[in-house]
TrEMBL record:
It is found in: Mitochondrion inner membrane. It catalyses: 4 Fe(II)-[cytochrome c] + O2 + 8 H(+)(in) = 4 Fe(III)-[cytochrome c] + 2 H2O + 4 H(+)(out). The chain crosses the membrane at residues 27-51, 63-87. It comes from Drosophila sturtevanti (Fruit fly). Its cofactor is Cu cation. One of its GO terms (cellular component) is mitochondrial inner membrane. This is Cytochrome c oxidase subunit 2.
Length: 229
């Protein structure tokens, strides 16, 4: 999760988020290089007299500063294209989770397992335990197995919501009347926090998401316990 003074991206917990961070760093590096070059050129303009008796045209420099930016743009445009298709790829999911956005809470369905379903509300500040995170913890967490392909189906019951987990690189809108799909692979155990990110009404800020990533055998225990009850 994000903590104090974290201005960058959160540490990744999935291969796709790792790739997204790599692209972010790549694009930022190009941005810094361009900014330095343009900044230097603009600074040097102060010392330019704007007078040159023999300068009428410059075919070569015009060629260079037309083609070079086009090539640089290709280096920024092609990697995310690959990422875009990678993010959309569904690779034989072992678990499917359905999350439904409501004003203002999430509800979940494990359709593969006897249709386990439950609501997930934020814990209000006055009911928070000492080790809880304010505005971020929920009463019922989403338990998911680590090291497995997981498919998420997102929809909404009233207005548009967005199911967003930064550490997993997941951000899918829940739209009434539509079923959106995404997938991810959690590569470590832990708690991963997220929040709704479509402005969905008065309590938009208070419908967080908590994913509890656990080893597969622990997940099987959890799912059998819930199927029996
Ligand atoms: Cu749901 Cu914002």
């Amino acid at each position: 999760m994000s903590t104090w003074a974290n201005l960058g991206l959160q540490d990744s917990a999935s291969p796709l988020m790792e790739q997204l961070i790599f692209f972010h760093d790549h694009a930022l590096l190009i941005l810094v290089m361009i900014t330095i070059l343009v900044g230097y050129l603009m600074f040097m303009l102060f010392f330019n007299s704007y007078i040159n008796r023999f300068l009428l045209h410059g075919q070569l420099i015009e060629m260079i500063w037309t083609i070079l930016p086009a090539i640089i743009l290709l280096f920024i445009a092609l990697p995310p294209l690959r990422l875009l298709y990678l993010l959309d790829e569904i690779n034989e999911p072992s678990v499917t989770l359905k999350s439904i956005g409501h004003q203002w809470y999430w509800s979940y369905e494990y359709s593969d397992f006897n249709n386990i379903e439950f609501d997930s509300y934020m814990i209000p500040t006055n009911e928070l335990s000492n080790d809880g995170f304010r505005l971020l913890d929920v009463d019922n967490r989403v338990v998911l197995p680590m090291n497995s392909q997981i498919r998420i189906l997102v929809t909404a019951a009233d207005v548009i919501h967005s199911w967003t987990i930064p550490a997993l690189g997941v951000k899918v809108d829940g739209t009434p009347g539509r079923l959106n799909q995404t997938n991810f692979f959690i590569n470590r155990p832990g708690l991963f926090y997220g929040q709704c990110s479509e402005i969905c009404g008065a309590n938009h800020s208070f419908m967080p998401i908590v994913i509890e990533s656990v080893p597969v055998n622990y997940f099987i225990k959890w799912i059998t316990n819930n199927m029996n009850s």
